[in-house]
Every structure is written in C-alpha cells, then in structure tokens.
C-alpha cells in the first residue's frame, strides 16, 4: 500500500481485470500517466488464476457474507460545495452462490502444507518449535517413568516390524515396494538365527518372496485424497474464467503486435472431445484427423471434407445458403446431406453454436473461423496461457509498468468526486483520504454499487471447476490437453466447456 501518491494523473484505472489491464497498458504506452489500483491482493480480479490453496482462500472470502465495513469519514473532508461523492462498494457482489463439493477422502491434517509454499514467519516458527520441544520433553519424562513396567511387554524387533506391515492397507504396501523388500530380508535373518538347518531357512524365505512379487504384479489405482491435492496444489493452476484463444483471433494479434506475448508462454489444445448420448468421443478437426478417424465411415469423411471446403469460402457462393438465412444453422445442416453424427460434430464442437438460436450465417462464420485457425500452432485452433488465464492481465500490467505506470494493490478507493454542474468525474479519494485528480477514469463494475448500475442489464453465468484423478477419455499420452464440449440442450440452461489438463496423477477440469 502507498499512502503518498502523486496527486495528478492522466488516467486512473480501478481494478486489474483483463479489460482494465489492456486499457492501462495502451494508455501508458501512448505516453499517458497511469495510476492502476486494486483493493485485492492479487492481479487479475475476477480473471485471476490460483493454486489450490489460493482458490480455497478465494472461496472462503466469497462464502463469508459479512458486510462489515469500517467507517472512514476522511473522504468527506475532500468534497467541495460544488461537488458530490459516489461511494464505491467495498465488496464484490458480482460473484454469488459459491459452493464447494468434495468427493475425495477428507483425511486433512493440520500439518499438511502445499509443496513449494513460502515459509511461515520466523517468529511463529520459533514459537512453534519451542512448544514442540516442551511437549517432547514431557513425553520423554512420561516414557521414562513407564519404561521399566513396559519392558517385559515390548515385542521384539521382528514382531513389531511384522505387525506394522500387517496394519498397512493393501494399496500402501503395493506402492511402497522398496520399503517392503527390507522387511522380507529382516524376516529371513531372524529365521536363519533361530533355525540351524540352512536348507529349511532357504525354503521359508523362498515361500515369502513370491507373495511380495504377486502383490507388485497387481497394482491398484491410487486414490487421490484431499491432503494430496493440497500438497500438490502448485502443480496446477485454476482459472476463475475458463477462456480459450483462437490462434488467429484478435487477442492473439494484439499480443503479438504489442510484444506482450514475450511475457507469457502458451500451449495448444491437442484434442477436442464431444459428449454425445452418454459417451465421450474425439472430434476430427484437421484433414489428418478426418482421414485417420475410426468413428467415421469413408462416406462421412468425404462429406465432412466437402462441407469444410465450402465453409472456408462460403462468402463466394451466396446462392447455396441465401435461401436459409432466416433459418437456424441446425436446420441448414440437415439440408447439406450430412449424417446426424456429422451434424452433431459441426454444430456443437466445431461451430459451437446453439441449436435453436444461432442463424445459418452465424454458424457458417463460426465454422470458417474454426477452420482458418487450424494448423497455425497445432492440431486444434485453440491456445491458452500455460500458467492460467490470469497470466494475461499480469502481462498487460507488466507492460504498463514498463512504460511508467504506477501500481498499488491492497489499495482501496473510497469514492469518486463528481462535479455537480458538468456531471463529470474529477478525482478520487483513496483509503488514506488523499484526493487524486485525473482526466479519465476506468472502473471495474464490481466496485460500483447496485444503484449506480441499476440501468445496466447483466447476464448470469454459471461456472464450475472440477478436479478429477483421471481423464474423461483415456489419452494417448500424459501431455494431452483436451476441451470437452456439451450442448446447452443436454446440460440444462448453459453450455459446458471443459478444459482437461491430463497428467499421470491429477486432472484439472474447468467448465462454463
């Protein structure tokens, strides 16, 4: 936080979401003096990406319905007679109905920490170590007092080892093969010491070894637990907004022309999946996918390639679709001699349009855009930032800072100062009571009150984030990145887009 900022700027931007960050970068590069503030402690606003622990903190923040606001009357001293103040909201009310469901084993322990997380405060660590040392001393004294009484009841080393191995679950004993082999060796040594016949000891050891080998030959699937998700929470990032970028889209062109792309890394979606009649199928996108597809017949492959060729140059043949401009794209596809299987793929997984509301022209435009983006960076037309969608706002903020923009996180704004006669915004008053003048203001809508936005029509969007321990469709390799499309008619009132990042241990799926 900064309690002494310059009092005059050309542009003040409140909120670090993607639109606000792009505007801030553009203004800063054009020579404007930019102040970019955000009351949150992270960049991106509602476009941010979090690790698992960060997501839990974000969920806790929005699940708490406490509207306690600390009264701060310093802003009133900065308002003149010919001015009035528009108070800004201290809580984001655009996100509602946040719920969490956990179907994994909730074996959460207090000492479970995220791998790679920052160390705690040294003072708290020292106090915790002192407490642990005191508890250990007390436990040692109690152990010495009862050592003589329990000495006769203690099992031997071999007995304690065998008992411990019997108490382990089958899954753990199979996964810890290197730990089980020393146990067998210890058992063999004990038998050789108690028996004089070396041949009999060899026979007994040979009877034990095959059992361990049988266990390792039948591995079982590891069950992902809640503690494991927390430990591996930095192995994946979760987006609040799951968006994909067309490889020839306007945003990609902006990233390249502005050199903002050098601040981030991108990855290509390797396959597109479709959910149809209770099963998940891979959608053939490129020419190679079409001809290598085993789920399409030779006739369907010719139909699909012919239709793709037409969609790329549909504007040059208006006579073939002009009579269907008033109908939906779904009805138009039925007239193109496409099988129901191809109609489903084109409508929901290639054009990704609605079956009831999208017109023929809209469907043809979407299909053409899909096909034009194929092959630029990979097998599918979609890209996404490697470390999450929240990288994009941070990249534009970095560019703004390079050209002189000033950034203040955890810095809230109390109100906007508006001139009564001209009804134009003149300044802001921050949490320290400082009045900052500017010519232009850009404000994220989550900072505005409901009364201020009463004339704006908002659309409700339902989003879900799913963390699974496996892929919805077995991938060819661990590096597959998939998008699963489900039509709105089958999923209820909203369409589902699932981005699946496949790995050997965990899968992160995001849907809107």
TrEMBL record:
Alphabetic keyword roster: Cytoplasm, GTPase activation
Pfam families linked: GDI
GO CC terms of this entry: Rab-protein geranylgeranyltransferase complex
Annotated TM spans: none
Entry superkingdom: Eukaryota
Compartment(s) where it occurs, according to its Swiss-Prot or TrEMBL record: Cytoplasm
An individual GO BP term: intracellular protein transport
UniProt-recorded Gene Ontology molecular function terms: GDP-dissociation inhibitor activity; GTPase activator activity
Chain segments carrying region Disordered: 164-216
InterPro entries, A to Z: FAD/NAD-bd_sf, GDP_dissociation_inhibitor, Rab_escort
Keyword Nuclease: no
Polar residues: bias regions: 164-184, 197-207
Broad class of where this protein is predominantly found: cytoplasm
Keyword Cell division part of the UniProt annotation: no
Known role: Substrate-binding subunit (component A) of the Rab geranylgeranyltransferase (GGTase) complex. Binds unprenylated Rab proteins and presents the substrate peptide to the catalytic component B. The component A is thought to be regenerated by transferring its prenylated Rab back to the donor membrane.
PANTHER family assigned to the protein according to its UniProt record, in alphabetical order: RAB GDP-DISSOCIATION INHIBITOR, RAB PROTEINS GERANYLGERANYLTRANSFERASE COMPONENT A 1
Family: Belongs to the Rab GDI family.
Protein name (record): Rab proteins geranylgeranyltransferase component A
């Amino acid at each position: 936080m900064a309690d002494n900022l310059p009092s005059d700027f050309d542009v003040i931007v409140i909120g670090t979401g993607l639109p606000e960050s792009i505007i801030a970068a553009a203004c800063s590069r054009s020579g404007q003096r930019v102040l970019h503030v955000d009351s949150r402690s992270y960049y991106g606003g509602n476009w941010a990406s979090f690790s698992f622990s960060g997501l839990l903190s974000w969920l806790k923040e929005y699940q708490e319905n406490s509207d306690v606001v600390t009264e701060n009357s310093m802003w009133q001293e900065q308002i003149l007679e010919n001015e009035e103040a528009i108070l800004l909201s201290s809580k984001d009310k655009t996100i509602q109905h946040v719920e969490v469901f956990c179907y994994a084993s909730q074996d959460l322990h207090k000492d479970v920490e995220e791998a790679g997380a920052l160390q705690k405060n040294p003072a708290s660590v020292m106090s915790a170590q002192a407490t642990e040392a005191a508890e250990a001393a007390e436990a040692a004294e109690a152990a010495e007092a009862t050592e003589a009484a329990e000495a006769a009841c203690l099992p031997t080393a071999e007995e304690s080892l065998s008992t411990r191995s019997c108490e382990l679950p089958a899954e753990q004993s199979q996964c810890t093969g290197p730990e089980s082999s020393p146990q067998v060796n210890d058992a063999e040594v004990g038998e050789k010491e108690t028996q004089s016949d070396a041949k009999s000891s060899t026979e007994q050891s040979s009877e034990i070894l095959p059992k361990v080998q049988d266990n390792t030959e039948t591995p079982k699937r590891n069950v992902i637990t809640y503690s494991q998700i927390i430990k591996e929470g930095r192995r994946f990032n979760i987006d609040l907004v799951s968006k994909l970028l067309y490889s020839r889209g306007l945003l990609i062109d902006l990233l390249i022309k502005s050199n903002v792309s050098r601040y981030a890394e991108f990855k290509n979606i390797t396959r597109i999946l479709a959910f149809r009649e209770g099963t998940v199928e891979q959608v053939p996108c490129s020419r190679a996918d079409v001809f290598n597809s085993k789920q399409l017949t030779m006739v369907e492959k010719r139909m699909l390639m012919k239709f793709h060729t037409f969609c790329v140059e549909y504007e040059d043949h208006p006579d073939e679709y002009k009579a269907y401009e008033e109908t939906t794209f779904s009805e138009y596809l039925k007239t193109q001699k496409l099988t129901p299987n191809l109609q489903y793929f084109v409508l929901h997984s290639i054009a990704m349009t609605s079956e009831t509301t999208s017109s023929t022209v809209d469907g043809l435009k979407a299909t053409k855009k899909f096909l034009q983006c194929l092959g630029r960076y990979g097998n599918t037309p979609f890209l996404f930032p490697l470390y999450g969608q929240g990288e994009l706002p941070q990249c534009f903020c970095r560019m703004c800072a390079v050209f002189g923009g000033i950034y203040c996180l955890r810095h809230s704004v109390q109100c906007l100062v508006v001139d009564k006669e001209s009804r134009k915004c003149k300044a802001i008053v921050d949490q320290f009571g400082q009045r900052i003048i500017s010519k232009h203001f850009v404000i994220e809508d989550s900072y505005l009150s409901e009364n201020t936005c009463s004339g704006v029509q908002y659309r409700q969007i339902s989003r879900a984030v799913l963390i699974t321990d496996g892929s919805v469709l077995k991938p060819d390799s661990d590096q597959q990145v998939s998008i699963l499309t489900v039509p709105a008619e089958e999923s209820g009132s909203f369409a589902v887009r699932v981005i699946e990042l496949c790995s050997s241990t965990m899968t992160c799926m995001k849907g809107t």
